[in-house]
Specification:
Elements (H helix, E strand, L loop, with lengths): L15 H7 L4 H11 L10 H9 L11 E4 L5 H7 L3 H7 L4 E6 L4 H4 L7 E4 L10 H9 L4 E4 L7 H8 L4 E5 L10 E3 L7 H13 L15 H12 L7 E5 L12 H13 L3 E7 L4 H10 L6 E3 L4 H9 L3 E5 L2 H8 L4 E4 L16 E3 L10 H9 L3 H11 L3
Parallel strand pairs: 1-2, 1-4, 2-3, 4-5, 5-6, 7-8, 7-10, 8-9, 10-11, 11-12
Length: 397
């Protein structure tokens, strides 16, 4: 959940000697120091400028002096995609500053071809949310002037990482327990999707009104387009309206019912214009074929661990995408493909709400923060006939 806080095991060093001795320091000593430093009492508060100077060796820089900036991103595919909508505004506001972004190995391909970024750093561990010491040293050697920490609401250790990288200007959302770690605080409105949260941060940093379109950006390369064409050519169907159906990919851990998808596939297959395509990963191949084999009509299956850019090019050739809230939702939205999705009900409705034209949630807004069993009961009430009617509404004439 957003705004969570875990007590860190260490505070950032102020010198190379301190960095080498940090690991051997008693954990309780560092935790006690952290606790004292973050007290609201003025007895323990020090000017941010002084702290920044001690850690970074230089005071916070004015925005016009930024030459190299870093965006700390933990690499979740959906989150990375939602950040891309605001990158052009950040880049244009500071044309003399080159922007870098951290990711993990699995999602670096989403932004590695983004023209707003000078370089991406696939250094984040997707499980622990940490950066290995060797990668940390490489980042520190870049001598970044400014760092944006949009993920720190869920990963507060990002502020410590920013200080360990000795970045003088550190920007994060306003949080009472961490205000000493940043040099610029951005007001936070939790009741909105990730894309809007990052837009607020960029708007505050650039002094722009955060009202721009939030459509994600992903840039398939020629080889990605060719691979997507091969996938489409292999479907063996002349029906003009192809609908990508993702029945199993979900971020909420909810349970999907094969009978729901069978009925929906039959409804689509009975319309002579529509060719549903079951999509998923290689791991889901067996289950996808089990559904396809039970369907009344011929349903092709695309089960492969596709590069995200290839998936984007493939979805661009489809008339619509339907499935749970997963990265394919945001990729389809990036490609301006109508997207119908079953919202993640385990979190606030706002966190997975519609944020772009062409999207449509099939779950009522009041169904939020539900247990797995409660989610099952909601899904049981979703009727294939009603969903098919919504699909027809978004298809071209």
């Amino acid at each position: 959940m957003r705004g969570s806080f875990a007590m860190p095991d260490s505070i950032p060093p102020t010198s190379d000697h301190a960095a080498s001795s940090l690991a051997s320091a008693p954990s309780m000593l560092w935790k006690t120091g952290w606790s004292l430093w973050t007290q609201r009492s003025t007895m323990y508060q020090a000017p941010v400028e002084l702290i920044s100077s001690l850690v970074a060796g230089r005071p916070p820089l004015d925005a016009q002096d930024w030459r190299r900036g870093l965006i700390l991103c933990h690499g979740n595919a959906a989150t990375v995609l939602q950040r891309t909508a605001s990158l052009p505004y950040l880049s244009r506001a500071y044309p003399d500053c080159e922007w870098h972004l951290t990711t993990c190995d699995d999602t670096d391909e989403i932004v590695s071809s983004n023209p707003c970024l000078t370089r991406t750093w696939p250094v984040m561990n997707p499980v622990s949310g940490t950066v290995p010491p060797t990668a940390e040293a490489r980042l520190r050697a870049m001598k970044f002037d400014v760092v944006l920490c949009p993920d720190a609401l869920e990963h507060p250790d990002d502020y410590l990482l920013a200080m360990k990288l000795r970045v003088p200007t550190r920007i994060g959302f306003a949080q009472r327990t961490h205000h000493q770690l940043v040099t610029m605080e951005v007001p936070v409105n939790y009741a909105q999707p990730e894309a809007a949260l990052f837009r607020d941060m960029v708007g505050d940093v650039t002094s722009l009104t955060p009202r721009w379109d939030l459509r994600p950006q992903i840039f398939p390369r020629p080889e990605d387009e060719m691979a997507a064409r091969q996938l489409h050519d292999g479907l063996g169907s002349s029906r003009p309206l192809r609908i990508a159906v993702f029945p199993f990919v979900t971020t909420s851990g909810g349970v999907w019912f094969p009978q729901f998808w069978l009925r929906l596939l039959d409804l689509m297959g009975a319309d002579g214009r529509i060719q549903p395509v079951l999509c998923g990963t290689e791991y889901e191949r067996r289950r996808l074929h089990e559904i396809a084999d039970r369907a009344t009509f011929n349903i092709p299956v695309v089960a492969a661990n596709l590069n995200y850019r290839v998936l984007a090019a493939f979805l661009r050739g489809c008339s619509a995408r339907i499935g749970p809230d997963s990265p394919s939702r945001h990729i389809a939205t990036a490609m301006s493909v109508p997207t119908l999705y079953f919202r993640n009900m385990s979190v606030s409705w706002a966190e997975s709400a519609v944020y772009c034209g062409g999207e449509q949630s099939l779950i009522p807004d009041d169904e939020e923060r539900l247990t797995p069993m409660e989610q099952i009961r909601v899904l049981e009430r979703v009727k294939p006939e009603a969903v098919f009617a919504e699909i027809l509404q978004v298809l071209p004439e």
